[in-house]
Amino acid sequence: ALKKMLDKYGDVSTIQADADGSTVVSLLKHIAKRKIVYVRNVLFRNKIKYARLRKIQDFTSTYVPDNGYYASPLLGLRPKENHGEEIIVLGSDQIWNPRGGSLEALNFRLGGFCDNQRIISYAASTGQAAFPDACKAVFEKNMKRMSHISVREFAGKAALTELVNKSISVVLDPTLMLTAKEWLQITKNFVPDTDRYILTYFLGHPSDEQERNIQMYAKQHNCRVRRMLDLDDRETYVAGPQDFVELFSKAQYVFTDSYHACCFSILFHKQFTVFNRAGMTGKTSMNSRMETLFRLFNLNSVMMDSGLAPEIDYGKVDQLLEQHRKESQDWLDKAMKE
Length: 338
Fold this sequence. Notes:
alpha/beta, Rossmann fold
């Protein structure tokens, strides 16, 4: 989505800051560590995982190819061939989350590989509202070099503003900057039009009570349940990014704990309920990205410990969406020109 936004300004090359280690070799190593009694199950499940991974890799090579540049902490940014004026756009989801990575990796994702190029960020995500002391100097050093800074979380803006004396804006997630019609252009008939289903997309695991809510809704509305990220639902698990979009576009209802599941539910005008993850209760448990999303669209009521969220008025949501799109596009236009 971010590349699509940037295409209007010129040729776009993508630099992958973190390589995906989920290769065939790593899968084979994973299998080799298992006891022989589990080999059949592991082989089968990893075959499903690999099918999904291949779809992700194919989608990435088609829509966001890693081309035009080499980048490394040691050598910096090096073009594969002659290029014109360079603007480095850092974005977006979780790119500045320091959790689980080294300081060197964080420095890279903050543009530490750049030489004298102009650097901006669009909807960069910190993933948290506070940073370890060891990370603060890395943020401060690199953000001083940026000409324009935008993030997708109000909490992230507040945390970064404490580190650097610069204007920081909150802009709309890139996925929401594209229309539903634009997203549907990438779908490939993964879902039959006759399929009636409730879609679930959980990064955690629903509690027993939440699962009962899902089953009850499906039964009352004569729908089956399709479960993304659940290896027991092989038909749905193998969905690639374009299939992810299509699954949301055709769902009768969505249950989730995922930020981007909320974004695509909004885009396709789906009624949805966001369940707190097991062991967490109340509005204070929502992550900062969701807090910002619900604040922007007045949707705090969709977050539930259990039960069913109130019906969403998409007339009001669409008005806010158009407003935030314009504000975010105006910000990007200004940042790219100055």
